[in-house]
Specification:
Number of helices: 7
Low-confidence stretches: none
Helix content: 25-40%
Shape: globular
Order of helices and strands: HHEEEEHEHEEEHEEEHH
Distance between the termini: 20 Å
Mean pLDDT: 90
Length: 235
Amino acid sequence: KKVLPVTLVGLIKKTLRMILNGRVIKTRNFLAAELLNYFARKGKSNKFYCNLCKKESYYFFHTSNEKRILRNSICPNCNSRKRHRGLFILYKEILSKLDTPKILHFAPEPVFYKLFQSYNYVTADIELADVDLKLNIQKIDCKSESYKLILCNHVLEHVKDDKKAIDELERILQPSGILLITVPGDWTRDEIVKYSKADGNGHYRDYGLDFVEILKSKFTDVDVVDLFKYNDFYN
């Protein structure tokens, strides 16, 4: 769906909520991103193409969190994020190598539904209402070796025990199947930073490079992919 610019009233309300909650850094990044968005809407210098909705725009919205400003992230036409546009290319590459796989998608993003509509595609979440299965990723109520392709995009950071979740994902993955996990993190840092409780984004940790070692201890082959390398395909 189309993304509408933040109104002045909405901007003031959101800013006040963040200030009252003591989120000073998040407030600063939010205001900086919205200022950049204001000038982006006024200019006509850039032209972006979204490979999901197949539309061109003069700008992609900047967004932010407590750690950083994410530039040129949100497509104003379909609300896809930069990682979604990279994943779209990666998903198509994977599907071209698999023969009619049975797919399980945790916390599914609607921007991908059209891509998977001709496959045996099952959606799952513990909270969302419009999914096929209500599943707790830390204790998945599925038979072992059930799925050829499992998609888990920006989920594990929200899970209290991500190692339990990884064990369960490995259990239900078929031999020679593919599990695609994306997580946010600082990939210049060696170690995962863990929080005693979920932060303002509902994250229990900020991942570091040792996450790759955790995956290598569970899976035969682990490939690390930088989704932002696909930027040139759609910018």
